[in-house]
Design goal:
four-stranded antiparallel sheet, 8 helices, six-stranded mixed sheet, alpha/beta, 245 residues
């Protein structure tokens, strides 16, 4: 489905996000332009991951309006959800690689699941994406043979397979040490500069928010609203309140 280059790639207004009959976020309004970087911060359970799941149509929209990459999330049919997800790359905190197959076969599985059939094309895409994250020599390895940072690099390669217009990164450095976390963030920022996807990062890591500036939305008390970009984020207060670490 073609998208208007002048329209926000994500546009949500007046949305209620409901999970298992519980209201998680009320009256969410969110607009993200192509190529923008946005952080979602807030305590555990404040709705950050639920917002991510709503954007990929894993949690159905109960109220409000939402358009993502040209798809209307209120009207989207089940058969169209895979096409929506081809436009979105998702990076998880716990990597979520399939443990019973190699790096190469993890990526092949995703491509085949999203409609790719030509093996020459599949092979070319996998090699290109593994090279872009510095993992081209580890294609034959099993996930358990990789470090946490290497697994996250593979997860990023997986997220990039379909040249997504949007990357959603849910605590992408949460299970990594500081040095490896910086490497992963530098890789994401390199992708951001070179390929210009919109990126939404869920994080508790204050150093990431300070080091790689972007828009910031804080989720708390069933709401998620933007912190004025012109104001200095009071890191000490966020630390005290347990919103950042």
């Amino acid at each position: 489905m073609p998208t208007d280059p002048f329209e926000p790639i994500i546009s949500i207004s007046g949305a209620d996000i409901v999970k298992e009959e519980s209201l998680i976020v009320s009256e969410l309004s969110l607009k993200v332009k192509r190529g923008e970087l946005l952080y979602l911060i807030g305590r555990v359970g404040s709705g950050k991951t639920s917002i991510i799941k709503s954007i990929i149509a894993e949690i159905p929209l109960k109220k409000g309006d939402a358009k993502v990459a040209g798809f209307d999330l209120k009207e989207i049919k089940q058969r169209d959800i895979p096409m929506l997800r081809r436009k979105i790359g998702v990076v998880f905190q716990d990597f979520q690689l399939l443990t019973d197959r190699s790096v190469y076969d993890n990526l092949k599985f995703v491509l085949q699941s999203t409609g790719w059939k030509n093996m020459h094309d599949i092979d070319s895409i996998i090699k290109s994406r593994l090279e872009s994250v510095g993992m081209q020599l580890k294609a034959h390895k099993m996930p358990h043979q990789l470090s946490g940072g290497e697994q996250q690099r593979v997860a990023i390669a997986r997220a990039l397979l379909n040249n997504p217009e949007i990357i959603l990164a849910d605590e992408p450095t949460g299970n990594l040490d500081t040095e490896t976390a910086n490497e992963i963030m530098n890789l994401l920022m390199k992708i951001h500069r070179e390929e210009s996807p919109a990126i939404i990062i869920v994080t508790h890591n204050r150093s990431i928010v300070k080091r790689y500036p972007g828009r910031v939305m804080m989720c708390e008390n069933l709401t998620c609203s933007e912190i004025d970009a012109m104001q200095e984020i009071d890191m000490s207060q966020l630390l005290e309140e347990g919103i950042l670490e």
